[in-house]
User: Fold these one by one.
Assistant:
Number 1:
Amino acid sequence: MAGNTFGKVFRVTTWGESHGTGVGAVIDGCPPGIILDPLLLQAEMDRRRPGQGGASSPRKEPDEIELLSGIFTPLGEDLPRTTGTPLSLAIYNKDAHSKSYDSLREIFRPGHGDISYLAKYGIRDHRGGGRASARETAARVAAGAVAKQLLLAHDIKVCAYTVALGGVKVQKRDLSVINSNRFFCPDGDAAEQMEERVLEVRKQGDTLGGIVEIVADCPAGLGEPVFDKLEADLAHALMSIGAVKGVEVGAGFRVAEMLGSENNDPITPEGFSGNNAGGILAGISNGDTIVLRVAVKPIPSISKEQQSVNLENEAVTIKVGGRHDISAIPRVIPVCEAMVRLTLADHLLRHTAISAKG
Amino acid sequence: MAGNTFGKVFRVTTWGESHGTGVGAVIDGCPPGIILDPLLLQAEMDRRRPGQGGASSPRKEPDEIELLSGIFTPLGEDLPRTTGTPLSLAIYNKDAHSKSYDSLREIFRPGHGDISYLAKYGIRDHRGGGRASARETAARVAAGAVAKQLLLAHDIKVCAYTVALGGVKVQKRDLSVINSNRFFCPDGDAAEQMEERVLEVRKQGDTLGGIVEIVADCPAGLGEPVFDKLEADLAHALMSIGAVKGVEVGAGFRVAEMLGSENNDPITPEGFSGNNAGGILAGISNGDTIVLRVAVKPIPSISKEQQSVNLENEAVTIKVGGRHDISAIPRVIPVCEAMVRLTLADHLLRHTAISAKG
Amino acid sequence: MAGNTFGKVFRVTTWGESHGTGVGAVIDGCPPGIILDPLLLQAEMDRRRPGQGGASSPRKEPDEIELLSGIFTPLGEDLPRTTGTPLSLAIYNKDAHSKSYDSLREIFRPGHGDISYLAKYGIRDHRGGGRASARETAARVAAGAVAKQLLLAHDIKVCAYTVALGGVKVQKRDLSVINSNRFFCPDGDAAEQMEERVLEVRKQGDTLGGIVEIVADCPAGLGEPVFDKLEADLAHALMSIGAVKGVEVGAGFRVAEMLGSENNDPITPEGFSGNNAGGILAGISNGDTIVLRVAVKPIPSISKEQQSVNLENEAVTIKVGGRHDISAIPRVIPVCEAMVRLTLADHLLRHTAISAKG
Amino acid sequence: MAGNTFGKVFRVTTWGESHGTGVGAVIDGCPPGIILDPLLLQAEMDRRRPGQGGASSPRKEPDEIELLSGIFTPLGEDLPRTTGTPLSLAIYNKDAHSKSYDSLREIFRPGHGDISYLAKYGIRDHRGGGRASARETAARVAAGAVAKQLLLAHDIKVCAYTVALGGVKVQKRDLSVINSNRFFCPDGDAAEQMEERVLEVRKQGDTLGGIVEIVADCPAGLGEPVFDKLEADLAHALMSIGAVKGVEVGAGFRVAEMLGSENNDPITPEGFSGNNAGGILAGISNGDTIVLRVAVKPIPSISKEQQSVNLENEAVTIKVGGRHDISAIPRVIPVCEAMVRLTLADHLLRHTAISAKG
């Protein structure tokens, strides 16, 4: 059974590859009546687009969302609304340079899925990463933009930002500045150091990893106590992003060295007086801010020479050319937001179903 | 939509609470013909049982699995085999002391799900953690024991062990000693220090966190390239364990400070010459050892005085009595193994379905 | 992927065989707060029980439901309420005569699933029909009794009755008399003729088929316009009952000879002035009574001699002894009600999820 | 939870409305390596197209399938193969006359879903039937054409034909002539009478119902013994077609008047000597031909005057103009085939998953 659908009630199925016609998504289960302003959807796409600076890929894609179904503009209104039926959206590839992948037809790129992919399917489109390409995340961001409109109607807000890149860590979290630098970094000074680090590593033909933090304002009561704990579904969502190698909630890995008396968040009549829990207790949101962090690996496409093998399992060396980013950050930021939104939209609707009056 | 089922093809639905009749599971999708030796199943349960030493709960439960359906012993054989129909199993509660929870009817325990649970359901069994109780994991271990028999028939092996507890970290990973100490610790010296740390903290009425590592031998080709990446489903599985606050695969959070040239595992005709990937590339197993780590929080039930509120949101203080562990380690070890096995069993069957001859 | 779960939001997974420990179900997704009076649940079971007269099996089973989880009696109340967590229920086998099936170990019974079952699984419990046994429906009726309590809170009512048996057809539908005869027949005269027909056929060692009609009062708006049309899910539900060979809604097969102008139900300010639609238009309930009919085949276990083959595919003759009914009617009546209730409960909750405010 | 996905392992999600951009489908779970000849896919679409004669709609749609993802032509081959990733396909609307629906903005058409649809969603695209439009079935036929290629690789064949139309019934089943008349009728004489009946009713501004039979050659062992019985999933599939009001398998509703000794198919060393079972026993295919029949209602859009109400629930009269068929037959024929193929493809892969070696 394949796994190209995310969510149980707010369900998103994505399709498409890096070098085919394009990518897209079908959203099934979006409630009717939600206003979908095309400009607001496009604004989310623009945040993810490459080509905005030195850290990002020179591939130029307008990434325009085409909405193919599921909307209707009622008589006397200006903007389309969802009809409760499937929203199909497509983003066509405009700037794919498939030829540049010809040399990779017979070689596995280290750090990429080429080798595991072929082991699974026995057939492989060598142009880009196929389904595992970062290009697929354009469809996720588009679907996340729809989820955002649903969540905003319920006052649920999500924000992601960079807290570490190439060893540079933020010293503060001033969310008012995250749109003032191209790393979505909440510390202006750190952002400048990140810039320098990127330039330095670009010269070496190498790439950088980092850490992204995501926060969400969310009412109490979303989630489930056992397998579909809210943090479990969020971990699933975030770990499904290609570059992510670790996920933590609240105090995260720091809990390993804490005492119970330190880690427990005391409860007061005014609310919790700490948030080591990260806004989730026993799988269910507790009304406090949800706090998540993900580890982002350095992009595996580097221009340095690497060891690998070809289809005949003979040793070869490889330098990956083409147009690539230095880091998945900042482009992974809107993808993280999208995946958290898809998860929360799903749990919002799941909770609605379970709370039908008995 | 509730979330008490795990898996898509090998599907496990658990039921039961800490202080009801018992806990249990229904496994749907287990292939027919697998020999289920009751002794082997029980051996897994025994590894999880409390009451085996100073770090664990004094609650005494024999935790006997009763198999209610789905098996048949063919004429001339000694042991039952699965029939391909649902396996129903139950583990009855024998030693629940519900009375000791009477004082908690109106008070929310810090660090527990009491408060979020009530926000969700509007009704709450105050005796123990309800579904969020660690008792529920007995059903997971039982289901995992069935998955283990299926996986062994495909040479897939899973092992979990403790790499940190209360600040004590292992200096080596000698898997031959993990059954020689009660922490399932691969470093005998570290195990002794952990013992001391536990005794020390027990006196203080406090509890400890730690880190568990899980490794799995698994053939290449299991997993999916997009939402159901193998690491994403594994993160979901492990983060669904109550005490877990973080999950990482391979190099995990260390990737944040690595260069692409450091992180990429070179490929040689003999295989990968590194395993920062943790055995998974682009969501699909690559044939190398799968390596996962989880952060385990200190148990929130401490006998120290804590601040909290009651049902009327008035400030109260609380000391949680009852019979509790100092750390979820070592009891979480077989639970981690079970969740990884359930995930791999599911992906094994999912892969079988997708690979039908075209 | 196995198929022992019914429903998408109100989800029922059944387990158990005719001649094992018993049968049972886990209901996941039942909203919290619903009062479950054990006497009301048992009353549904009693309607399905064999041993109530000449048409039914002499097998004596008390069919007591044991509720193993998911309920809690709040302080100051008398009856348990659902907690929103999985309801596990078991019905233990008390009167299984497995020995009487020894002669069937190597012979396939005509009209039964013995031969197709073995083709699928390669292993078979020869005692009774295994999962395909009518015994499994006890678990469905128990789950349906829970669904009934949820539906009643939303004024949704379901009723099934016999409209034909062994060629005897009802001439009227007086629902006030269906509990006055053992066929749940809405025509007292027809019920008497059915009685005679049953006695006659019993002497011949043969069995009878019939037709059951099911009606439901249901608000407008439940269902889905495409694959999960309300009538499609109802057809799935009813056709999943072993004895059912046909399902129709509203005018059913009669539409084949109708004109559009005859079949369309005119709409008036007071409602529809006909109900050929059977209460469902384009997959969604229209507020009129839902009307369904199912064809019930004669029970295949007959004491007349039949041709068959053994495991070596050699011709044999067989007379099926044991304790069997003359017709699946009336025992299939509460099963039909249960399956319709499970479907409506599921769509009630599915609709709630989709109608979250945009 | 919405219901626009069909299947559990071979999963098809459709999108689109009668009068939007188009319709389409995403197929997830199709195994890799299957050759998809565009001409063969298009041939299936052409069978469903309107405009082929007096019984069908004058709407002219080329119904060209565009394959947007999931295929790759390996080096040295001529035709694309599936890659095991989602197949996205779109069929754009070319000849929608939305203006002609303006008069229907405020009136509910009898026999259509207009009134139930609005009750569910609170918002409605008045142009055509929205998702409930027959136009949506173009996406099903396209997906069914893909399933056909998978099934042919396993020697599974499906064929549908007309056995009754407007009261004219076939007297024989000569499958060699079904492509020689425009009703896909296996009796040439009956086809001529059907032609006359259509012309007669067209003059009256009325429409006709009928019965379609579907047969499938299928190996033994597909299906499930409980909820997902093969006939239950087939009933679901067929009843999800808008015009279908009844489904039967094998002897179908005739079983109501049969004795067990008549209905049971004797088993001989050469196979079954009858097929009242319709090729399925206890939910699992038995290797004999699967036989299904569906009742098709007359198309509700008639040009005769009908009673209805408007949005203010005031009585109105309505004549439905526009371009409509006299009967859903023959266009429903390829849709029936598609739905049966999607069901069999799904169960083929489901069976593969369950039969992994234990």
Number 2:
Amino acid sequence: MNLLKNKIEDEGVVLSGTVLKVDSFLNHQVDPELMMEIGKEFARRFKDLGITKVLTIESSGIAPGVMAALQLNVPLVFARKRKSLTLSEGVITSKVYSYTKQEENTISVSSKYIGENDRVLLVDDFLANGQAALGLIDLVKQAGANVAGIGIVIEKSFQDGGKLVRETGYRVESLAEIQSLENGKVTFKQEGARV
Amino acid sequence: MNLLKNKIEDEGVVLSGTVLKVDSFLNHQVDPELMMEIGKEFARRFKDLGITKVLTIESSGIAPGVMAALQLNVPLVFARKRKSLTLSEGVITSKVYSYTKQEENTISVSSKYIGENDRVLLVDDFLANGQAALGLIDLVKQAGANVAGIGIVIEKSFQDGGKLVRETGYRVESLAEIQSLENGKVTFKQEGARV
């Protein structure tokens, strides 16, 4: 998705060989027009799969997730990173380790909103170590629902997540795949290439 | 906004005389079409104020916030509830006490994304005790920017927040104003009435 890649090239800040900061349009400030285009692109790629829900994790997944849900004409559900006082009965949980934040979060979703008749599109901002995506897959399975596919805004293809998540057999679509952040520079993977 | 009021009547769960749960369309599951209509309504009410940014707080403010930003054709910024490892330099913070969660959060925003030339529309899901809105106002003031207005999805008019926030002199627009949750029933304030 060229619009996204151009944005990453123009505004992404390479903090190290593994960390890309995109706070100007995705993770802190959000570009609503870009989110809308991302939503349209996810809908285009997954439109024939009978999706009934989009599931993401707070907070950075919500903006691309709500746009994908809008375009697919289904509800969005956002998993919470810790239990809320007003979310108690029928809560499904999974543990997710964040390498970025070096902490374990319990992500949770109410069984009211993901059920056995659902075909769920998972959406997240980044795919790096794959822990968040695997946690979301686990939530969907526990709910007795089906994973229809996984839509990722930015995949860091040089990390393990893409391989781990694709090994589950689910279809993963990443709108920008980054091959390397070496030498302070973003290098995208060639379209269609699978490392 | 009747679409929203109807949704609250149909799906809102009154947990007590002060707590309304709207997890089916705003706080956990999100209705993207409703969020789009909410975004349009905020844009309609605030369109002539020269707004340059929409500012909200993660997580439940993001969906209505991104739709308002889309309609106003400006970026969204979401304040974080705790400091991130990759957000350090130039961080503006304010303390916000949550009565719902009974804890104090430090909300933060990068000074990169709210500056002295900005006219900021604050958007949040609920106005109850007003602490979140006052925290957002404080962030904008610290950044040297101007508050153009405050857009609230659901105001619990029987709590102090509306009065506290209106006393600051800023324009507050709430799309649904709830006068009472007594006897397990949602009673809306009459349009135009100010208690």
Number 3:
Amino acid sequence: MRTNTITQPTLVLDEHRCLANILRMRDKAKQQNVQLRPHFKTHQSLTVGNWFREAGTDRITVSSVGMAFYFAEDGWDDITIAFPVNVLQVDEIAELAAKVKLGLVLVDDSPIDALGKKLEHEVSIWIKIDVGTHRTGLAPDQTNEIDKILDQLKKYPELHFAGFIGHAGHSYQAKSVTEVQRTYDVSLSILLDLKKKYLNTYPGIQISLGDTPASSMVSNFGPIDELRPGNYVFYDLMQEEIGSCSMNDIAVAMACPVVAVHPDRKQWIIYGGGIHFSKDFLLLADGRKCFGRMVNQNAAGWSVDNVQQNPMLISLSQEHGIVQCDDHNFNQCKPGDLTFWLPVHSCLTADVMGAYVTTHDLAIDHYRQRLNR
Amino acid sequence: MRTNTITQPTLVLDEHRCLANILRMRDKAKQQNVQLRPHFKTHQSLTVGNWFREAGTDRITVSSVGMAFYFAEDGWDDITIAFPVNVLQVDEIAELAAKVKLGLVLVDDSPIDALGKKLEHEVSIWIKIDVGTHRTGLAPDQTNEIDKILDQLKKYPELHFAGFIGHAGHSYQAKSVTEVQRTYDVSLSILLDLKKKYLNTYPGIQISLGDTPASSMVSNFGPIDELRPGNYVFYDLMQEEIGSCSMNDIAVAMACPVVAVHPDRKQWIIYGGGIHFSKDFLLLADGRKCFGRMVNQNAAGWSVDNVQQNPMLISLSQEHGIVQCDDHNFNQCKPGDLTFWLPVHSCLTADVMGAYVTTHDLAIDHYRQRLNR
């Protein structure tokens, strides 16, 4: 790639690594006969979306109504918004339902009347079940609440009950493949029990799960109908720590100029701060924070050889990044050099950057570039 | 204000509070005969910039070359980029120097030849001194390095030495007005010593400091030439904790719909996550994290009455915010209600939101809306 055109913090996307991630997950799901509905909130890019399309993806997940419009306008016609229905957006939801096969998520019955009265086209309604993350969703034993939702749905023929949806976000706290497997097994068993309970009354209902750690690490998905992982398109240091990927699978890196060096404390200052990386960090065993790990730039993009021996990004302010070196690697860079950094949380880094340059030197789109989000 | 048009996370800007902040700092600086060069990286808005202009501001600080262009195109003609010169952007810097009276910051002599050979118009060169923050800048006793920079500058008549610049970022760790005052006094004395040392050789050189805690809390600025605070235009919970402002001075709030409630754990889930607030947080004395504090919506915008008794934002994921309530306030909201939140770090919240709606219902600009940053 040509890096001499990069003069300020830039998010570089490695097409080869990204495509390998897309294909690996596709093949794994296909092999196990599980529908994949990848979450597009990580990349938020029509171009990357097209790479999925070329790999056979025909249904997607997004996290907002605006993002659903963004992809709908590019021809995606089967979209689930994996976020509790925000009743204030019912007009936009109705507009969207006229364009695409739309999936919506309910956590209670409160938006049903507003939806039912507004919608003129059928939508799929997923009931969100809390499989252990304790963020949103009904507890598996709240069948009274589930029945209340199902009763309300009967009033509106456009609101088609599609099944139960879960997100095992607590797999991000897992420390081993065994723990991720256990989280997945529990989540699956919760959704399976509900499916069995309601299948006679609602034939054809499905169950859907979708975190990247489980989708990457679990070897047997079992009788799940649909998986919705998203982060795997890029992966990041957080996923590497969990064990979802290797350093070499991470498909995005921030390119940042060095603007100062401090021999006394063996630090570099890079142009690249919280507005470029986001402020998510890994807390290391030694108590330090890691905001990014340096990789070695090469003709194709970057290599992860000896990444553990490279300097580490230990602090971010708005535009500055502080890099801790040691005696061995401090002299690798001087002001004016470009450095490459694997991000801690690629979803947020891509979101704050709002643009990519590929390792083939193409500037590509991100949803944030749309002014009216 | 009309809140019925707000359907998704929206950054609301209170014009009255904002203008009061602008005027209070202007009057304080004027009274003490100190030049104010407000930092525009917090608001990044031409509209807010105009409020400064109407209040008499004629010189500004920004944090990037792109941001300097943004404001230059709106007629600002005296701009300091308070970030170490990134030599990779020397072409853009030269272009900018042709348009405005430009101030640049050097932390070493490495960019001087590139600048000197490229620039066709005079720029002001500030030497950055580390007044104790240990992020960038020369230590006050590195006079050899200072002399090396000054010697190099002599080669290029366009590079005019303007003086010494510092940023006491460590005042953000201060716990009391006494600590902030002490930090300010030390910073001022460091810059003053350098000014005295070099004033004979470089008559007219100035010294410039600029953090919001000191600018807000220090009663006597002493013989400083220029102050460059930025955050005070909005303030935020971090500044309130330091003591720079009261809750009622904070001029921005995130408006977020409630999308779920959990009576069992007395929590609400709001539509509003890391991509809306940013991930900065306050670590409270009880070990909890605070990502935002709820204020009470009213006809004019919001009131901070009883803010300490209101629910608190304790966790953020990409789009979800988890709000902790207690028995007393849990029933205040239901799904579909709009809630208002004071942000922890307004610079980053404004940056990730990239747009404002004022309490007078005007949608106004932010630099992020420019596609080609």
Number 4:
Amino acid sequence: MSEMRSNLRIDGPRLLNRLADLGAIGDTGDGGARRLALSEEDRQGRNWLKAQMHALGLTIATDKIGNIFGTLPGREDGPPVMLGSHIDTVGTGGRYDGALGVLAGLEVVAVLRDAGITPRYPVCIAAFTNEEGARFQPDMMGSCVHAGVLSLEEAYAARDADGVSVGDAIRAIDAIGTLEPGSIKPRAYLELHIEQGPILDSEGPVIGAVTGVQGIRWFEITLEGESNHAGTTPISYRRDPGLVASALNVEARQVADSILDQRCTIGRMEFTPGQINVVPKRVTMTLDLRNPNDTHLDKAEHHLKEFLATTAKAHGVSVSIQETARFAATPFDERLIVAVEGAAKEMGHASRRMVSGAGHDAQLMAAIAPAAMIFVPSVDGLSHNPREFTKPEHIVAGGDVLLAATLRLADA
Amino acid sequence: MSEMRSNLRIDGPRLLNRLADLGAIGDTGDGGARRLALSEEDRQGRNWLKAQMHALGLTIATDKIGNIFGTLPGREDGPPVMLGSHIDTVGTGGRYDGALGVLAGLEVVAVLRDAGITPRYPVCIAAFTNEEGARFQPDMMGSCVHAGVLSLEEAYAARDADGVSVGDAIRAIDAIGTLEPGSIKPRAYLELHIEQGPILDSEGPVIGAVTGVQGIRWFEITLEGESNHAGTTPISYRRDPGLVASALNVEARQVADSILDQRCTIGRMEFTPGQINVVPKRVTMTLDLRNPNDTHLDKAEHHLKEFLATTAKAHGVSVSIQETARFAATPFDERLIVAVEGAAKEMGHASRRMVSGAGHDAQLMAAIAPAAMIFVPSVDGLSHNPREFTKPEHIVAGGDVLLAATLRLADA
């Protein structure tokens, strides 16, 4: 039987067709898709997905936050191997982010059925609600509720920019199920995803064996100085928050260059009043710090806060810092990472270990089960963009590796 | 007669009353005034001013750009000593900026009339149109036209944010006169003005003998990089225009600290798309460079442009620079500066030489006549602000120095 299984491959055109079919729901006409969580397009996507699961003979269950599970029974009962991701998108999303992981899971199940294989343990395909957080915050909402780090009540109470709550939206599209969240605790969780970054596309190889998700810390910083006339105010009299903000940006780059795997991003700076001939009175800015190692992240945060305090004081500028997000670094399960590497080798693809720069449902699942991820290249690293693209041969490679890894885990 | 003249002093309460009367036109209720150029409030201010000139028996003439001249005849004909400034304000202006120079000029004339003194040369009080440039650009429009550096046609064609032209606005408030601009070429031009900066208020003394106006260069800079995901894009892959903009701000401070009298200001930076987790794609920013010495200003501009080009290149960011304003440094007339210093001493006030950080009508008049300025302190350096304030005793000191300097020049 292992002989036969090692010859198993996914049906590439079938997976690509499913990606095209789901991509047609919320098609934005420019290659992209828009299926905001719990929107009409999301409803259509969910119904399409359940129809696919139904056609494959899976047992379908939906939980109270709208997470959809389609299960192929195993020869034994017990916790399934779960293959999951999400089918919601950001406002200007692409066809691959999230969709790939769910549809490749369907393809794995389809191959097993076609080959007449019943694995030892059940295989469950999961689509988690509102991974993107584009309409309702927090992101990764469905997997947060599943993992028990967010209560159902908190999730229902979240509102979009129009004041519509998750509770109302989920009822409006009839996406609410009866399953208690967290009921299905898998023996292993695997998620195939596009990298959303440039590394595999630029440097290869085709398969990333993801060792974990970076820790993330977000800060909103307000610097208050004094508005002054650019012509009449000597430099020594100034209290310029723009200068302090700029110095922090330059220092953040130094930190990123000197601490292993550290990423620092200042994505926004707003100067008030923002006039050419006026020293700004106030600057609001953001700081995004990421590192796969929380100890390194602590070091980066500590250094930059010290630098900011010292620099602001030297310029007579006051500082207010609000932490708006904090996710600990999530290391994935070593046994699963090895399974992914072995599966890649079995399928004839080189792989490299790498860290996920973005957040994924897998990091929540890692709290309740062994978890890992498989990355395939994103052309030019683009994502959250209609031009998001992964080459068909890389889609197929990722699907094959997911299939082989699933067999290793579901028959272990 | 010189004995009698050395005892002459202005009537302080009368000058302060006139400042209050003009400040009541366009009173914003918070201590400030709003008399945008060629607005209804400007019309009322102009009519009030002409009535004051008429009551003093001055010969009134208005030119085709609306500059108002009221002349007290001298014992001899010939070019007058001109005492000028402006009565328009910015949108949220104060009671002193501009108004002080015109009304102190009126007070000088009033004192001479009261004392029965006819100076050797005429004394002409001038109020120039649209010094502020808050509604119509360029600023210092009336004195630019008077000095011949801006044509009447160009001035008439300037439009405000609502599309109303200067030509239409000046006719609508009946502020257009018959005098050809530039007809009156004074033998000397003096302008009393509030400092609009913190130096005299912080360090004293009461009187600034202004030696010139800084050169000014304005730049709008656009930096284009690449928008990338803050989590998935390693630092080495980034093309971050925000980092380049920030480095320029830090470098500009170094330049200001190392080149004599150099002022550098970055008053605006805008990050696009401006999201916490996205490396910005584009930054637009401003750069304001000032120095009383054009050679030093050249050096600052050259250094910062080189730094920007090098830094942007190193980060894969493209640079576009547009120069939006350039005024050469204007040194004032040494004989007039000495006259101001002598007048201050005669009136019992210490003075210091200083440079004007802001632009003034005097810098245009310097192109066609010997010119100088007298500064008095601005409390906390505030200006273009309802809280703009100069202490009554400093107003009176400035008026006395203007009176004494006028006598030195008009009887020379």
